[in-house]
Amino acid sequence: MNVSTVDTAAGKLEQRLANWLSAPGISFAAPAAAAAYEERVRIIRDAIQLRVPARIPVCPHVGAFPARQAGISVQQAMYDYAALGEALRGYHRDFLPDSLTGAAAFGSGPLLETLDYRLYRWAGHGIPEDSSFQCVESEYMRADEYPKLIDDPSNFFLRSYLPRVLGVLEPWQKLGALTDILEIPMVGGAFVPFGLPELQESLQRLQRAGQQALEWFTAARAIDAATIAELGIAPVVGGMTKAPFDTIGDTLRGTHAVTLDLFRRPTELLAALERLVPLAIEMGVRAANRSGRPVVFIPLHKGADSFMSDKTFRRFYWPTLKAVILGLVAEGVVPYLFVEGACNRRLDVIADPDIPAGTTLWMFDQTDLAEVRRRFHGWACFGGNLPLSLLAAGTPAQVSDHVKRLIDTVGRDGGYILSTGAVIDDAVPANVHAMFDTGREYGRA
């Protein structure tokens, strides 16, 4: 969607919210489904904008649970799109969540195999067939390559980083910089590598990967559209981006190496973080424009209390994350920050008055929500903190009691969404029902 004709951030946000509410491209199966969709979008919108909704939205983070509930493995969900569709339809019909669990979140096993993706292990490919994917950290960017990243991130990704994490692109390390193709004398030599056998094979494999990606995307979109049309479940997340520090710490350097960089290469690290800010903003805005939904997911990893000191957080993690948040908000995009681990010591920093009230959504894993409410009330929507251990090992009565305590403690006066602290992989279905049922009934205004 295009919001370029709107001058203000608030106006852009309202336009994006209105577009989300209108459900463009969805033909609902019945008026009841259309009404349910509108109700769900409205209560989520009201929570984000710090109003008291008609009822508190119930939007847990969901991982492998729908597959396991349906009796299929995670591997089957990644390779058999028909089975994945049945599993997700069963989950949404049984529990009627307020937010859609999209089919794309499971990923495509055939595509990942063709690409020879090395950054992750996935079900049946390096880990058991019923396990969720696992990141394989390594120094995919060497310490001496900071200048290359800072000078030209796209060139560095194309010729260095991606060939290390995608086996299909390994021969691309032989390519020259595309910016070398300036005039006729430079053209011929620039294309010589594409004639090499290994580049020819890479291009053939990429063609196959493109076909697999299109098949997967078409299947995932059809699964989601059918669920929305039948049940009126609201798709919330319109895209994803990352905190600059996590881009380097998770993906490029790894935890061990980036920790050393804090002390050995602080100037280069800070310069690289600044260089990634506009890319992260553009990634999120582009995703929101493409999906037609304003909410952009940002998982936060390395800024947790257990990873770094407050001093380090204030110097290295927060400034560029704040810049990304402000850049997204300026374009009417709602940053949805998933704060993994515990961030109790960060609350005074992240509750930043420079960020306009009612423009962000924060979900917390192990952070004390009473302390969150004390700082966030009247400033930002928040939720999370429902422990997965309770859903896996508790009883329905215990789950119901916990949900009621959360609502009574932090959720009665708006700006709150009931959610889990992390994604649900293993859970007792009766406990999940207790979470939804109690949240819907006890959470009414």
Q: What Rg do the Cα atoms give?
A: 23 Å
Count every beta strand, where a strand is a DSSP E run of 2 or more residues: 9
Helix fraction by DSSP (H/I, runs of at least 4): 40-55%
Question: Whole-Å distance between the termini?
Answer: 33 Å
Average predicted confidence as pLDDT: 97
The number of helices is 19
Secondary-structure element sequence? HHHHHHEEEHHHHEHHHEHEHEHEHHEH
The coarse silhouette is: globular
Q: What fraction of residues sit in β-strands? A: 5-15%
Instruction: Briefly note the structural class of the backbone.
Output: alpha/beta
For the report, how would you describe the main beta sheet?
6 strands, parallel
The strand order across the widest sheet is 4-5-6-7-8-9
Low-confidence stretches: none
Characterise the protein shown here.
Helix content is 54%, strand content 8%. It is of the alpha/beta class.
Quick structural summary:
With 445 residues, the protein is an alpha/beta fold. The protein has helices at 9-22, 31-48, 65-70, 74-79, 81-95, 109-115, 146-151, 153-165, 184-191, 197-231, 244-252, 255-264, 266-291, 310-330, 347-350, 369-376, 388-393, 396-410, 429-442, and strands at residues 120-123, 126-127, 134-135, 237-240, 295-300, 334-339, 361-364, 381-384, 416-417.
